[in-house]
Design a protein that fits this description.
The protein is an alpha+beta fold. 37% of the residues lie in helices and 12% in strands. Strands 1, 2, 3, 4, 5, 6, 7, 8 and 9 form a nine-stranded mixed β-sheet that branches. A hairpin with a 2-residue loop joins strand 6 and strand 7. The radius of gyration is 26 Å and the shape is globular. It starts with a helix and ends with a strand. The chain binds 2-acetamido-2-deoxy-beta-D-glucopyranose (NAG). 2-acetamido-2-deoxy-beta-D-glucopyranose binds next to loops. GO terms for molecular function: cysteine-type peptidase activity.
Amino acid sequence: MTSYASSLFFWRFVFATAVLICLFKDVEVQSQNAAAELALMQQFEQFMVEHEKVYDSLAEKMRRFEIFKDNLKKIEELNADPEQTAIFGVNVMADLTREEFRATYLSYRMPEDARENFLTRLKLDHEEEEEDEEEWEGREGGFGLLERNKKTTTTTTTTTTYPPPTKGPPPQACTIDWRKISPKYPSVDNQGKCGSCWAFSSVGAFEVLLSKSGKTEKLSKQELVDCTKESDMCEGGEFEAAFKVMQDPGLTSEKEYPYKAANGTCKSKFTVIEKLKSYKDVSGSDSKLIAALPTSPLVIAMNANDDFQWYIGGVLNPKSCPADGLNHGVVIIGLCGDSWLIRNSWGTKWGTEKGHIYIKRGKCGIGLWAYSFKA
Ligand SMILES: *[C@@H]1O[C@H](CO)[C@@H](O)[C@H](O)[C@H]1NC(C)=O
């Protein structure tokens, strides 16, 4: 009897203790979690202030906070990759899901009739050169012009503390750089929440070219969005259709026809201040791009892959960036050893050096669709 009672007592004791230990453990873990959560919330608040984010409701703010936390994890993973020579961090897009990022910022559309040709060409390239399916390395072996340097060593960053890491392997010196060619190089624009990259890259390259001769008046992107008949406005557009409008009737100023980041109807009257003289297809190889770059910034289509969402510096060396995924229009403004220097249209807070990005050459379909201008 006594042994039964005492054993019952014993087990009760064990059970109670176990429960207590568990409870305490739980409390400890919970308070650790709470502290981490609080720190993340502080980062998020800081991000909101810096990027002037305002959410309609508390529920929306909490939803964005969850996305932000997910994104911090993705940034950490990217920064931990030793093959990667770019740095990733919290930027203006840190509260967007992948789907939102893609839907909002990527909008280059290839002309339907050109698409088939293009895919055939792409297929031929692959067969001829027996290359990695994911990467296009230049059709005519154009890399011969400049020696491609060995992979730069990477400083791996594992922290996601905010502000993000600012040091990384520097890009190689630029042998062509339109920011030097043109002392009045215009600042990078922001297409906002409208898929008008095709208009921004077209007008952007033209503005950079004009700035070389001292012209600094900003030209209208909205005019192209509204007046390029063959485009889908904020849903995407084609370069050549945009160039035709830039030639005839030509472009008015940003001041007279300001950007709305929305679909609109073409105004019946505006004062044309610049006309594009001509454009030339320079696509096909790195050597063609390099030959054209000293006299014109190049309007190109490329695959802006998911890494773009977090890029804040260094040379982007994407793992997977298939050449047949052209989805974005940008401007090549520099040649920097084994990378291109590219002008984007996501504002001056995105990317590096106020709106730019360095990308390893031979990646992301760069050069498959490229144009130079004559002002
Ligand atoms: C803008 O125009 C395109 C092409 O007509 C259309 O597909 C899209 O739905 C429009 N967007 C808005 C917000 O009206």
